[in-house]
Amino acid sequence: MNELFIKPNLKSAQRRTKDETIIERSRFNIPDEYLSLGFNKKFYLRTYGCQANERDSETLRGMLAMMSYAEVNTPEEADLIIMNTCAIRKNAEDKVFGEIGHLKQLKYENPDLIFVVCGCMAQEEEVVNTILKTHQHIDIIFGTHNIHRFPELLIQAHFSKERVVEVYSKEGEVYENLPVNRVQKAKAWVNIIYGCDKFCTYCIVPYTRGKERSRLSEDILKEVVTLVEEGYQEVTLLGQNVNAYGKDLELDYGFAELLEDVAKTDIPRIRFMTSHPWDFSDKMVDIIAQYDNIMPFVHLPLQSGSNEILKIMGRRYTTDEYLHVFDALKTKVKNIAFSTDIIVGFPNESEEQFNDTLKMIEYCQFDNVYTFIYSPRHGTPASKMEDNIELEVKRSRLKRLNQRVSVYALQNNKKIVDSIQNVLVDGPSKKNPDVYSGYTETNKLVNFIPKKAKAGMIVKVKITGANTWTLKGEEV
Length: 476
Ligand code: SAH
Ligand code: SF4
Ligand code: F3S
Fold this sequence. Notes:
The chain is α/β, with parallel strands linked by helices. It has helices spanning about 10-15, 50-65, 90-100, 105-110, 125-135, 150-160, 205-210, 215-230, 255-265, 280-290, 305-315, 320-330, 350-365, 390-415, and strands at about 5, 25, 40-45, 70, 80-85, 115-120, 140, 165, 175, 185-190, 195, 215, 235-240, 270-275, 295-300, 335-345, 370-375, 420-430, 435-440, 445-450, 460-465, 470-475. S-adenosyl-L-homocysteine binds next to strand 16.
């Protein structure tokens, strides 16, 4: 088979260059003759991983709509299957490989089916080699840096009936010209910075997403203003580390300034994800406190409560520095809620170091905690560290951690029973159409009895009951 090949390369993904980021603004073009490529055809798109991937999938949807494809909810109905993948932990990858194997049968039943793997796993040399060797039914592999090339690759695979592999290992331009088909009508993801330069020693993201590249503030603000005009109620500003926004632009305009400018638009709700504690300035705290449309909720990943482990993780803050940010937010932002990420079982984590994490949990009493067992990622410094901790020990720590976490989650939820909360309505709940669901300003999920509520409205809900991860209420 004459395969078209640009494979990923770990060495170049690890490298950082001083190259200036080019902003691509030319009109995004698909040749006229291909605008009906998907006429009468259907695609199934499955997204794994974080919001960066969710947002990328919305770009893919935009492109597919341009080419007349219609979306379906099951792979069995589809002429085109796309898996937008995540590489963050081994179990994320196992899920994708499981699904790839599971869907193989569909390709035998319909040889014209086009099967695509993209996203963060496609950036990994090892993964691509495995797919090439053992999964002949995958027709197209492309990565996070060349999503703009998707229509071209699809056209090539469609007409050549050959396998198309194109993954760039070095990040490309910032693309301002790509189409988008947003899934939700009231809440929008807005990228503000791509990539990550933090290189936490356990993490694969700096290799799969490239170096930090900020969008220009005028482009971001224009997007938000358009979303307001379209009736959107909430934007979530996205980046692996939003607090690093603007550093690469050297304009003396950072996340605090951007957040303030976004707050001055008429968007009712602003969220942001994710904040690295290291870059969280006092000015950012003040801006969050100052504007009512910046939601009082911060996801502030701690990872570990042990300074020794934080150091080996390369997180570049101590627990005291973390608490400086945490306490400042807690004091200045009325009714703020927090979530965090914790990794247990980092190589050689001792019982004492794990207990230090529990102590931080006791102090911070987070509203939500995403907890993970450390997963070695190929090419990262931590994956080369010898690890003397048994998986059983790690599992038991995870369990103990989760128990503490749910105590505080429930306690925090109980505190707001009887209060009235502003809730952005998602719509009728899946299980019971008489019950609606939505999110409070503090990002808590509420199931409530509606009166006038419709999807996309912000309504007042009296909280009548609290579970660990959800609230119950009635619209007032
Ligand atoms: N940029 C974000 C994190 C994105 S990844 C930040 O720095 O906060 C989301 C979470 O996955 C991380 O916060 C971390 O807790 C977890 N994670 C990342 N790599 C991991 C690994 N190798 N094993 C286990 N968990 C990991
Ligand atoms: Fe990964 Fe650290 Fe970057 Fe977050 S800040 S994406 S954990 S390297
Ligand atoms: Fe996963 Fe890539 Fe996001 S590895 S967490 S999808 S940046």
